[in-house]
Design a protein that fits this description.
Blueprint lengths: L11 E8 L5 E8 L7 E5 L2 E5 L1 H7 L3 E7 L2 E7 L5 E2 L5 E3 L1
Parallel strand pairs: 1-4
Antiparallel strand pairs: 1-2, 2-8, 3-4, 5-6, 7-8
Amino acid sequence: MNDDNYNPTTDFVRVGVKSGGCSGLSYELTFAKEKKEDDKLFEDNGVKIIVDKKSFLYLVGTTLEYSGGLNGTGFVFNNPNAQRTCGCGESFSL
């Protein structure tokens, strides 16, 4: 966040879902300076995470983990609602 001029103590990580990707829906992970009225707010290890209302319906129960393994580094979405995912793990369908 610091590298992109965001302040981890006051700004947010926005997690969302959008149309597209191999399986129909894809995950979105961005930074935001403001929380919108219909955003759900979560906090973990001092990181403020916001999810818009529509994306929240697709992400209920999802865990977001950081992986630094042999397959590369990055975030991994573990979504119990996904019936099918693509090989890269960045898209899913219900």
